[in-house]
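Quick one: structure tokens for this chain, please?
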Amino acid sequence: MIPAHIIKKIKRIHIKSSRTVNTIMAGQYKSVFRGCGIEFEEVREYCPGDDVKTIDWKVSARLGKPFVKLYKEERESIVMLLIDMSSSLKFGTFSGSKLERAAEVASVLAFNAIKNNDKVGVVFFTDRVEKYIPPKKGSGHIWRVIKEIFTFLPKGKGTNISAALDYFAKISKKRSFVFVLSDFLDDNYLKSLRTVRQKHEVIGVMIYDKGAFCLPSSGIITLSDLETAEEMVFDGFNKKSRDKFTYVNKSAHQKTLNVFSKAKSDVIELETGDLVSDTLMQYFKYRERRLR
């Protein structure tokens, strides 16, 4: 039995996301996420003006004259959401938890995809792969995804982004748009990111809370790591302690941006106080300009 307050959250995000897609984002997604794959259709004799890169050299050698391969664009795409369910996503200060923002982002992306006749699949992960939901269409599928985010009880608490990326690389059959929704409190996933990037387009959605960058300037503060349960004590009166805390956390934030840059992948930064619709629209517009 799902608690009433959880059902209320699911309904709110479901309705809000649907309205956002049908009003603010109408048509924007389709213009920047067109069919991302191509499949072989036939070969025909080479004509002046054809791209030499499309020449089928084996067929040409066999028949004694140049032939080119023809492809057709796949009409539908697959959108995969790799969603971090680790304990750190429960953190939030003034504008709700990071997990709530992840649910809203997932919902908006899923509504956009399904409206564009694309399929949506999900991989839930922590320090291991927790659950896989195969790509499907339909608004009922979106409801299931949102419900799972708020009701699924993961076995792990930590974060292993490489495990999620490696798992996806094994199960993926068609080229996909892959959105990784996480706070990226993890290391050593660049190699896996590059591997997936060879076949798919990977976009990070880094969800963070500004409260994680600063300490209150009063009292002795005990902080508990939600993933490891490790406790750390800080002197809020000490400016050096506060500055060091801010520096360490901002450095970790920048490190994530650097990893995606090295992998030649986009990353969307979303603070828990930001509007999901505004943040995604900014990215869609940036992507549209880049594709012109």
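Strands lie at 38-45, 67-73, 78-84, 119-125, 129-136, 177-182, 201-208, 220-224, 231-235, 266-271.
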